[in-house]
């Protein structure tokens, strides 16, 4: 697990780098953390890095948005409004897992055991009174290496738990 503290600018720069790799490698990205911690902002930056030129908005009510990026398709899903994994088929979960391209899923923990085994996991927490975000990243299964967020860090890396 890698950990870093990011300010807004660092989050955006890291997100663009993340999006470039995720689009090229067709990575599934599981995002978790409290409301307002940066999940949507990171996804917006990642979509820009993937070559998406249109406005990227939170799919809280539509549940899934699909974008055409210069580096391939990008899906953005938000599971905030589902109760549990039993509701996943109704939002096209199988298509998210099998369609080519990068996939960014907010509130991914609500998918439970339905998350694909090969993925990046990114956990957000508030830090420094809300001025910074602590991001913890982990590569699961056979997913490619994730760009190191510490490169974009606003503060020295805190020790891992």
> Regions with pLDDT < 50 over 5+ consecutive residues?
157-161
In the CATH hierarchy, the architecture is: 3-Layer(aba) Sandwich
Please tell me what the overall shape is: globular
- Summarize the amount of helix as a percent range: 10-25%
How large is the radius of gyration? 15 Å
| Element string (H = helix, E = strand) | EHEHEEHEEE
Give structural notes:
With 161 residues, the chain is an alpha/beta fold. It has one domain: 3-Layer(aba) Sandwich (Rossmann fold). The protein is 22% helix and 29% strand. The chain has a seven-stranded mixed beta sheet, with helices on one face. α1 packs across α2. It is globular and about 40 Å long. The chain starts with a strand and ends in a 21-residue tail after the last strand.
How is the secondary structure organized here?
Elements: E1 2-6, H1 8-25, E2 28-32, H2 39-49, E3 64-69, E4 72-78, H3 93-98, E5 102-106, E6 119-127, E7 132-140
Give me a quick take on this structure.
The protein has 161 residues and is of the alpha/beta class. The chain has a single domain (2-150), classed as Rossmann fold (3-Layer(aba) Sandwich), CATH 3.40.50.
Characteristic terms for this protein:
7-stranded mixed beta sheet, globular, Rossmann fold, 3 helices, alpha/beta, single chain, 161 residues
């Amino acid at each position: 697990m890698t950990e870093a503290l990011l300010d807004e600018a660092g989050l955006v720069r890291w997100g663009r780098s993340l999006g470039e790799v995720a689009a090229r490698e067709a990575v599934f990205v599981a995002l978790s953390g409290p409301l307002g911690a940066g999940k949507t902002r990171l996804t917006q930056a990642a979509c820009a890095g993937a070559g998406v030129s249109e406005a990227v908005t939170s799919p809280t009510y539509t549940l899934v948005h699909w974008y055409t990026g210069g580096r391939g398709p990008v899906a953005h899903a938000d599971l905030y409004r589902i109760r549990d994994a039993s509701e996943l088929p109704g939002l096209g979960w199988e298509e998210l897992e099998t369609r080519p391209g990068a996939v960014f899923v907010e509130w991914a923990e609500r998918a439970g055991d339905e998350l694909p085994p090969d993925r990046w996991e990114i956990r957000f927490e508030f830090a420094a009174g809300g001025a910074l975000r602590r991001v913890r990243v982990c590569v699961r299964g056979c997913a490619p290496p994730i760009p190191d967020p510490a490169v974009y860090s606003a503060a020295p890396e805190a020790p891992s738990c």
